[in-house]
């Protein structure tokens, strides 16, 4: 929506690369609505990753991605996303990234729809929302979601064996190497190695905390930064979170999402129960896929 800022930020960072012997990598997320040819060229040139927001089938996408004119976004964004991916080049990452809700618990169909549209890097993730909202995923939905994850995993195995594989982000797991120890212990490291900065210059632990004044960590314009809070986040890891300590998934999950923990359990150290159940199921499926493909 303010693409000039994106361009200027990239140009500024690039101007610092040589003098400081650094290489900046950029990621951008777009819902596609304002994605012109110029922006596609810029993104494909400058961004090492791009996340394309689309939920899958037309009716699924358009039910929740409603435009100001009351229509959906699907017909506008699909050709633009296809063009971006077709001209992107194989050396750069992208994801067609959707959200599934209670309305589409048959989300394997949405994943396959995205693959049929030509996207081979797909991420479709569960909605995390206020339980009062009609589309939120509740405990009673878990058996159905688990069944669907298994259906998706089995579909991926069959397609890979047939030479028609694609990547599903949440089933990608590196059992032999994977991330470094510190990343395994504290995941995204929001508020510590990662922060969000608002247009006003305010610093928050990550985008999900933006607007929550209690979590403001400082401001880039006056140079303030709350080091105590930074340390609090640095120490939030799978051993400081009671529930994670004995969880079999801890070195792959890395303690869940601090923002969700705080929003739904009131404490960054208290994992969100439904999110845990989903994460464990996804990891189980990811391991199952690797075992099946190793046969
Ligand atoms: S699944 Fe839940 S309990 Fe297990 S490591 Fe992740 S956040 Fe912690
Ligand atoms: S949303 Fe959650 S996982 Fe993402 S950066 Fe924030 S705390 Fe980390």
What would your notes on this structure say?
- This protein is about 45% helix and about 15% strand.
- The protein is built from 12 helices and 9 strands.
- A hairpin with a 4-residue loop joins strand 8 (about 220) and strand 9.
- Helix 6 (about 140-160) packs parallel to helix 12.
- It binds iron/sulfur cluster (SF4) (2 copies).
- One iron/sulfur cluster binds near residues 208 and 258.
Low-confidence stretches: none
> Based on helices, strands and strand pairing, what is the structural class?
alpha/beta
Q: Distance between termini? A: 48 Å
Oligomeric form of this entry?
single chain
Provide the descriptors you would attach to this structure in a database record.
alpha/beta; globular; 12 helices; four-stranded antiparallel beta sheet; five-stranded parallel beta sheet; 295 residues; binds iron/sulfur cluster; 44% helix
State the gist of this model.
With 295 residues, this protein is α/β, with parallel strands linked by helices.
Give me the secondary-structure topology.
Blueprint: H1 3-20, E1 26-30, H2 37-46, E2 47-53, H3 58-64, H4 74-86, E3 93-100, H5 108-116, E4 121-126, H6 142-161, E5 167-168, H7 181-186, E6 196-197, E7 202-204, E8 218-219, E9 224-225, H8 227-234, H9 242-245, H10 250-253, H11 258-265, H12 273-294
Parallel strand pairs: 1-2, 2-3, 3-4, 4-5
Antiparallel strand pairs: 6-7, 7-8, 8-9
